[in-house]
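Report of the visiting student (M.T.), summer placement. My assignment was to run the structure pipeline on a short list of targets and document each run. The first record concerns Ribonuclease PH.
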Amino acid sequence: MRPSKRAADELRSVTLERAVARYAEGSCLVSFGNTRVLCTASLEERGPGWLRGSGKGWVTAEYSMLPRATHERTRREVNSGKPSGRTQEIQRLIGRSLRAVTNLQAIGEKQITVDCDVIQADGGTRTAAITGAWVALHECFTWMRARSIISVDPLRDHVAAVSCGIHKGTPVLDLDYAEDSAAETDANFVLTGSGGIVEVQGTAEGKPFSEGELLELLRLAKGGVADLVALQKQALA
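After the run finished, the structure tokens were exported:
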């Protein structure tokens, strides 16, 4: 039995609340159980300098965790002068995930920055951030189309992410902190609505996992992402 009493293929309670930030062009407050992330998408009139003259835009992301998002206060990274390696890795992952389903040519030479701020962490902050960031980005593009800044929807597909792992010998979906901290294998899957694989991150914490176990984790992830995409569509309806 899982600590949360969920079935092996059961997500935590997931909510996606859009239009929660008054000034942002797009926003979403996403909850995966007790993990909560505020995602805001901001339009910037200029893209990065290295894309100037290309006719192409850019989508990027920043990620941070509030000091009391965790059990004990963590120091703000701004006070240390630079983001941690973990923070840089996660925000690059979020940016890659969003760009994988975005037609950058359709944006023009503009940039959208999606900020993902973890309000409360209980495992799966990066997967929740990606899932909510897509909704915030969609809202930003809707805002742009309503003002004739762009003429077509740049999004080609949905993208969402979920964690999977092996806990006490059993492959399970959407690990919370209690499971994540004790899992023998921990993995994150970023998938599109049509089933394409954007990124897979997997690590054995104890003994190596088998190819069969990896395929079982992928099977769980596909089911979980299908449910998340359905919730994204519901949030936008």
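Residues 190 and 199 are 5 Å apart (CA to CA). Strands lie at 14-18, 26-32, 35-44, 58-65, 111-120, 159-167, 170-173, 185-192, 197-204. I thank the supervising group for their guidance throughout the placement.
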